[in-house]
Amino acid sequence: MANVTVDPDIFESQGERSEGIFDGWEGPSPFFLVISDETDKAAEALHVAIGRCMRVDGNGNETTAAEMASTGEYTAIYCSPVYLTDTGLMAYLDTNGELPRAMADTMLRILVEEVEARDITAHLTTPPRGSESTAGCTEWEDSEAGMARLAFEIANLDPEWP
To answer: Taxonomically, which superkingdom (predicted)?
Structure first.
């Protein structure tokens, strides 16, 4: 049975609270760290989640590829590969330093869903501020399990994607 815990300060520790135009955080884009003894399942969960998070708009809606291409809504502009770090599996999204609360909440929900779907025990957190460097880290997608996942994705590409 899945046992997923979430650091209650997962976003608070990543950036400064926005006191301006939107409710959320300003500063670094969101980093996710999954700590689990089941590395390949946790990496697959993070890999799938980070891809889904690319389609989350600033209002917290998970859009389709077609909607994302046509609406012009604010979404992340990049997602990293999954990195194998000494602490756990890490990935991040580039949200141009802005993370509206609705977007953050949906991204976290997606990550929890993907980890729970793999029925593993994991703790979801973020790396300490300033330690987010991926220099020297191996990309999970280069591993055997990662290559198998990518092959599956290529075989099942979204036909609506432009």
So the answer is: Bacteria
Kindly write down the DSSP assignment for every residue of 71-116, as one continuous string: H-----SEEPPPEE-SSSEEEEEE-TTEEEHHHHHHHHHHHHHHHH
- Domain spans of the chain? 3-155
> Number of H helices and number of E strands within the chain?
4, 10
pTM: 0.85
Report the chain's mean pLDDT, rounded to a whole number.
85
Measure the CA–CA gap between 34 and 37, rounded to whole angstroms: 10
Count Cα atoms within 13 angstroms, Cβ side, for 7: 17
Decide if 85 contacts 5 (C-beta within 8 A).
no
Q: At residue 21, what are phi and psi to the nearest 5 degrees?
A: -70, -30
Assess contact for 14 and 27: CB atoms under 8 A: yes
**Tens digits of residue pLDDT in 99-123:** 999 999 999 999 999 999 999 999 9
Question: Residue 57 and residue 77: Cα distance in Å, rounded?
Answer: 11
Q: What's the CA gap between 9 and 132, in Å, rounded?
A: 16
